Amino acid sequence: NTVMAAQMTNAHRRFLQVLMSNGITEASEARKLHQHCCETDKVYYAHDKLDDFINTINSHLQPLFMQIRKGISEDDGRAHYAVVNLAETEVTKMASDYTETELELFRKTMDLIISSENGFASSTDILNLADQLKTKKMKKKEAEQVLKVFVEDKWLSEKNGEYTLHTRCIIEMEQYILSNYQDVARKCNICHSLAIQSQVCESCGIGMHLPCVRKYFRGQTEPRCPKCNEFWSCDTP
User: Fold this and answer.
1) Fold observed for domain 91-181
2) Strand residue runs (E) in the chain
3) Matching CATH number, 185-236, of 3.30.70.20, 3.40.50.11810, 3.40.190.10, 3.30.40.10
4) Which family does it belong to (predicted)?
5) Residue 93: Cβ within 10 Å count
6) Which of 23, 74, 148, 193 is deepest in the core (most CB within 10 A)?
């Protein structure tokens, strides 16, 4: 209740505005921003109070069905923050920014990524979908342009012609993905959040994020599955 009673200061508002305009902010940047906002607004600042600071903002966002959420990058395990709209589904959230055809291409790309073994979809496979869209067929050149925009807007990440979901997308759409892809979406056995890029146990089928695999097996001579204790056959990063 003390959090609910805490006043939303200009420092909180400034922090929220920057977070919203960024789309997603890495934790180290969020910490710098926290300090900057407090010092500019001449309010109490403590380096270890970022979570309290965010909780105060979240208590004021609650009636608006919004929340600042923390998520982990699947690439390097670094924490990030994003503002999530809890009242909308992925489709309505993105609908104001993209055409129906572009959204259909995004959904089909997401299907490919989530149902893949390694959490990636090749540009070739995605571009092959462009002329099969129900809303309106898309030329490959046009589809390439749209994919570029999805990367710029931090919904997708691209590495050597392979696409995966950006950390922002995972933070914002975790609930949507878990409820709409129940058969294929999995949670990481270690951190219990949605795992798109993951290693999977060949014996029992549990998945783990690559940074979580790294941490869990650090210092172990023979990596064994945390659930079934069978030998972990994937190459540990």
Assistant:
1) Arc Repressor Mutant, subunit A (1.10.10)
2) 25-26, 66-72, 79-85, 121-122, 156-159, 162-165, 186-187, 194-195, 198-200, 207-209
3) 3.30.40.10
4) Belongs to the NSE1 family.
5) 15
6) 74
